[in-house]
Structures are given as structure tokens and as C-alpha cells.
């Protein structure tokens, strides 16, 4: 392929994208499979494969991660079985994590198997396309969509339509494969801001305008190592129909064509909004759309605190229930996924839902099936009533698989939560989020207590530690937490957390 002339200020990512679009690797997977990953071009291996969701992991060379797209976090038992079969063949290397974007990532994948895996995905309507690098990530929506009696807008179809527009029905869409940076979209339909709307580049939040339900639109929310910002109002209201899809298309086009590309640390959408101001940004979006937009309704309709959906709940459909199950630190093994697919089919309608808290929901269980459902052995592992700290725990991948990580997260987070749950009694939920480095994939800024991996000096040695965040508020009136203490060695963390839980969250020691 002919290299285009490179402007002097082009960073290395822009340079390789202009040489060959990342999506081009989609047509080379057979070749890579035969060649073997060791012989591949470095940029194809480490970067471009992410355009089809395949992530080379320097921590586990040869064992790749595969990031799916699960729009609105909804997956069928048939699809879940296919994903379970994919990881089953990798024995101990095979597992899957529920992500903080209501999505699944598979591990242990061998490159030579990817062409076959993709054929199997296609057969059941799954795709992993455009799920990494400078693409739009999994689109989140309320995990209760269509089953919550109190919901305002059912987001399922809209989320699917936006994904189809961006990915060309999952086949890949060159229109949106060279954005200046990653991009997040969330469409909330419930009253409790279940998706953390405020931390997305575009968020649709239910709002009434002259009695009609639609969405207010927020833009520019993001976390990065350098800067974290909550999304700000675009001062626009849209009806819950094709207008949502077209607005996403217009914003993405404006961002693609005008977003800042020279410095990768300043390339997320908010940096462009800063440069232009929100009025010019809106005017550019309207010019792209070819018409003006409605101004926003004064107040959005979010009026509930956030729910975690763990337990048994009646649906809006009489006689049907959904059951929210806790998945410790979001980790599945193949057998878990087969079991979930089976119980979803036997007792429900085969549907399985994922949450941004890294848990799972089985909906559409008739009253008469509930008793037998609740007696299934998998509910001993994925319980409905976990201990309080374990219940709300969220963690990013961390050092086990992620080369950016400064600390091990998931296993440490779980062990610590279990120890503290055994020692303390808590009057209320305390949401603890772990993230292994300042990239903030585990969203420490939305937590009551956020822990961000760092390195600290202790007794003359460099050891794993965390910076402590507090004050994150979710649901209506969401606010981002901030760093309140830096550099706590992980060895000292238990006593620090114990004190905070007692002093600030009313915990009582069980030994008293
Ligand atoms: Fe993330 C990069 C994992 C949600 C901000 N994130 C990465 C990479 C791909 C780095 C890498 O190549 O190793 C991590 C893959 C590790 C692995 O092997 O799993 C990674 N991010 C994750 C996941 C799996 C964390 C989890 O355990 O749930 C989440 C996958 C979501 C998905 O399904 O697509 C994940 N990442 C997030 C979020 C949270 C969110 O979207 O609500 C954020 C903060 C919000 C945001 O993006 O504005 C986030 N990830 C980042 C960043 C910083 C972005 C920036 O603008 O600087 C990076 C680094 C980058 O892109 O350069 C990053
Ligand atoms: Fe990896 Fe850091 Fe993201 Fe955790 S926060 S998954 S350590 S990039």
C-alpha cells in the first residue's frame, strides 16, 4: 500500500493509520493465521488487529484477548454457548470477563483459530469489529430495557441501530475506523442513570419536552491518564427514533474530520469542544446534519438513585421476573457460560444481560419457574446476596493480562473485599472500584472509594500501591470523585480502608 505524505506533526498512531486502515486486517486474517503471530508485521500485530477486536497481550504472548461488541449488554443463550465453546478449547488459559462497558472479553485465543472463530460468530450474529483502538466502543444501555415497569424509553433497538450504523451491521465500516481516538456512546432509558452517562463522549439521557419523551444530549465525557471530565450539555433534545442514529453519525463525522490528531493525549472529543466552544461545536454538528436541532428540555428525567439489580424482581410483563446474579470481579470460565446459557433457556427465554457493574441478569423467568431456577447450583457461585463489599466491587483487568497495569487488580480486589466483609458490618453499600493504572478503565472516579494502581517506595523498595479516590456519585446528579490520598502501599491498604469504612461509612467491627 502506498504511504501518504505525513504532516510534520503526525503522531505515530496517525502515521500508521494513514499508511493502512486498521480495518484492512479483516481481509488478512487467514494469511496471519498461516504465518503465525511471531512472523507478523509489528504494527499489524500490536495495533491493527484491535480493529477486529483481537488484542495481542505482551503479558501472555501468543494468547490473545478478543473483545466483543454486545449492544446494550444483551446476548442470547446460543451466542453465549458459542463464546463458551471458543474459550473451552484453551483449557486453563480460556476465560472471559464482563467489562465496565457491559461487554465480554475472551482470553487465551490463538491467532490461528481466529478465522474459524469469526465464522462461528457470524453464524449467530456476533461481532467483535471496531471494538478497540480509534473506534467507537461497545454501546451501553439500561440493562432493564424493555422489562422495567418504571422505564422511560426502551433503548434496545436504538442501541442496535447506532451500532449497525457505525459498524455496517457488524461487517466493518471504513467511514468510522479512523477517528482521532477512542469514542464512547451510552443511551440511557431508565430513571437511574444505569450507564454512567456522564463519562461518555455522547450520552443520551431521557428528558421530557412539552410532554413528549426524548433525550437530552451530553457530550465530551471521558477519562484519561491526563484529564477526566464529565460530559457537558450540547443543549439539544432529540426524539427517541432515527434522529438519535443521525445525530451520532453527524457528531462522529465532525469528530473524525475536525478532531485534534497531533497529540494523542489531547485527541478525545472534549479537547475539540474546548477549542471550538460548545456553540460552534453544535453549529458544526447541525451543518453536518443539514438542519437545526431542538434545544434541550430544561431538566432531564433522571430521578432515581442507581440500582444494582441483584436479586429477584418482577418485570413490567405480568408473571415474569428477572434475576440479577453477582459475578465476582466479572470473571467467567467456560462452564459458567454454558451453565448460564442453559438456565436462561430452561427457565427464561434464552436471554442473558450484562451490567456495567460486571454482573449478569437472566430475564423473562415465569413465576412458576422461579423456585427451580433459584435451586440451580450455579447460583451458589453467582449469588443473589453477596456480602456488601463484594457485592459492589468493580475491577479492571490489571497486571494479570494488561501490560499498562502498575498493579494486580482483580484477584487482589476480591481477596481484600472478602477479608473486610468478614471483619466489618456495613449499614449501607459502599462501592469500591479498582483500576490498575491512570487510564481508569475500572472507573475509580465513579466510586465511593476508588483505587488507582501506582508504584510506591516502601522500606527502600518500589512496591505496588494505589492512589485513593473518593466522592464519586452515581445515578441522578452524578458527580466524579477526586484523588484524596496518593501512594498507599497495597500491603498497608487493608488497614487504611478499614479505617475509612468505619469513620466515613458507619462500618462496625464484627469483633465488638
Ligand atoms: Fe480501557 C486501554 C481494558 C473500559 C479508558 N483498556 C485499555 C486496554 C485496551 C489497554 C491494552 O491494550 O492493554 C485494556 C485492555 C486490557 C485487557 O487485556 O483487558 C483496557 N477498558 C478495559 C476494560 C476491559 C476494563 C474492564 O476490565 O472492564 C474495559 C473494556 C470496555 C469495553 O468493553 O470496551 C475498559 N477503558 C474503559 C473505560 C470505562 C468506560 O468506558 O466506561 C475507560 C474510561 C472511560 C473513557 O474511555 O473515557 C477506559 N482504556 C482507557 C484508556 C484511556 C483513554 C484515553 O483517552 O486516554 C486506555 C488507553 C488508551 O486508549 O490509550 C484504555
Ligand atoms: Fe489496563 Fe490500566 Fe485499563 Fe486497568 S486501567 S485495564 S491496568 S489500561
UniProtKB/TrEMBL annotation:
Under the heading Pfam families, the entry gives: NIR_SIR (PF01077), NIR_SIR_ferr (PF03460)
Keyword Translocase set for record: no
Ranges of residues in domain Nitrite/Sulfite reductase ferredoxin-like: 62-123, 315-376
Q: Which PROSITE patterns match?
A: NIR_SIR
Gene3D superfamilies hit by this protein? 3.90.480.20, Sulfite Reductase Hemoprotein, domain 1
What are the entry keywords?
A: 4Fe-4S, Heme, Iron, Iron-sulfur, Metal-binding, Oxidoreductase
List each copy of the Nitrite/sulphite reductase 4Fe-4S domain by range: 133-292, 391-500
For this protein, the parts annotated as crossing the membrane are none
Q: What is its EC number?
A: 1.7.7.1
> Record keywords: NAD included?
no
User: What GO molecular-function term can you cite, just one?
Assistant: ferredoxin-nitrite reductase activity
Provide the family line: Belongs to the nitrite and sulfite reductase 4Fe-4S domain family.
What is the protein name stated in its UniProt record?
Precorrin-3B synthase
**Species of origin:** Stanieria cyanosphaera (strain ATCC 29371 / PCC 7437)
The root-end lineage is: Bacteria, Bacillati, Cyanobacteriota, Cyanophyceae, Pleurocapsales
Amino acid at each position: 500500500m502506498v504511504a501518504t505524505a505525513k504532516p510534520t506533526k503526525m503522531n505515530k498512531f496517525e502515521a500508521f493509520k494513514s499508511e493502512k486502515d486498521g480495518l484492512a486486517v479483516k481481509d488478512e486474517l487467514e494469511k496471519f493465521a498461516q504465518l503465525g503471530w511471531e512472523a507478523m508485521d509489528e504494527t499489524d500485530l500490536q495495533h491493527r488487529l484491535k480493529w477486529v477486536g483481537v488484542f495481542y497481550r505482551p503479558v501472555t504472548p501468543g494468547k490473545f484477548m478478543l473483545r466483543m461488541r454486545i449492544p446494550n449488554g444483551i446476548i442470547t443463550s446460543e451466542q453465549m454457548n458459542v463464546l463458551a465453546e471458543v474459550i473451552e478449547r484453551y483449557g486453563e488459559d480460556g476465560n472471559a470477563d464482563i467489562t465496565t462497558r457491559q461487554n465480554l472479553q475472551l482470553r487465551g485465543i490463538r491467532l490461528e483459530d481466529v478465522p474459524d472463530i469469526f465464522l462461528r460468530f457470524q453464524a449467530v450474529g456476533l461481532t467483535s469489529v471496531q471494538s478497540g483502538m480509534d473506534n467507537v466502543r461497545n454501546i451501553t444501555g439500561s440493562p432493564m430495557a424493555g422489562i422495567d415497569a418504571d422505564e422511560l424509553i426502551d433503548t434496545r433497538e436504538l442501541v442496535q441501530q447506532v451500532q449497525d450504523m457505525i459498524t455496517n451491521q457488524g461487517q466493518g465500516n471504513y467511514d468510522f475506523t479512523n477517528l482521532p481516538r477512542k469514542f464512547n456512546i451510552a443511551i440511557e432509558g431508565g430513571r437511574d442513570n444505569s450507564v454512567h452517562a456522564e463519562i461518555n463522549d455522547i450520552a443520551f439521557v431521557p428528558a421530557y419536552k412539552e410532554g413528549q419523551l426524548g433525550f437530552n444530549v451530553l457530550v465530551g465525557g471521558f477519562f484519561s491518564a491526563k484529564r477526566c471530565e464529565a460530559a457537558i450539555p450540547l443543549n439539544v433534545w432529540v426524539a427517541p427514533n432515527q434522529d438519535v442514529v443521525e445525530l451520532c453519525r453527524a457528531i462522529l463525522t465532525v469528530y473524525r474530520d475536525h478532531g485534534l490528531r497531533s497529540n494523542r493525549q489531547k485527541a478525545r472529543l472534549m479537547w475539540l469542544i474546548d477549542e471550538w466552544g460548545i456553540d460552534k461545536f453544535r453549529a458544526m454538528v447541525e451543518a453536518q446534519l443539514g438542519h437545526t436541532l431542538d434545544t434541550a428540555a430544561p431538566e432531564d428525567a433522571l430521578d432515581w438513585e442507581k440500582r444494582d439489580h441483584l436479586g429477584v424482581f418482577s418485570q413490567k410483563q405480568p408473571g415474569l421476573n428477572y434475576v440479577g446474579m453477582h459475578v465476582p470481579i466479572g470473571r467467567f470460565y467456560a462452564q459458567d457460560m454454558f451453565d448460564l446459557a442453559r438456565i436462561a433457556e430452561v427457565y427464561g427465554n434464552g436471554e442473558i444481560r450484562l451490567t456495567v457493574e460486571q454482573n449478569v441478569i437472566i430475564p423473562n423467568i415465569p413465576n412458576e419457574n422461579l423456585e427451580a431456577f433459584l435451586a440451580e447450583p450455579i447460583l451458589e457461585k453467582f449469588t443473589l446476596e453477596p456480602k456488601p463489599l463484594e457485592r459492589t466491587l468493580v475491577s479492571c483487568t490489571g497486571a494479570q493480562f494488561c501490560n499498562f497495569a502498575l498493579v494486580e487488580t482483580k484477584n487482589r480486589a476480591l481477596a481484600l473485599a472478602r477479608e473486610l466483609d468478614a471483619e466489618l458490618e456495613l449499614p449501607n453499600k459502599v462501592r469500591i472500584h479498582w483500576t490498575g493504572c491512570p487510564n481508569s478503565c475500572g472507573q475509580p472516579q465513579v466510586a465511593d472509594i476508588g483505587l488507582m494502581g501506582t508504584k510506591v517506595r516502601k522500606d527502600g523498595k518500589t512496591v505496588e500501591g494505589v492512589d485513593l479516590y473518593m466522592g464519586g456519585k452515581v445515578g441522578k446528579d452524578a458527580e466524579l470523585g477526586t484523588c484524596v490520598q496518593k501512594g498507599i502501599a497495597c500491603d498497608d491498604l487493608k488497614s487504611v480502608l478499614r479505617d475509612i469504612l468505619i469513620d466515613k461509612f458507619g462500618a462496625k467491627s464484627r469483633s465488638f
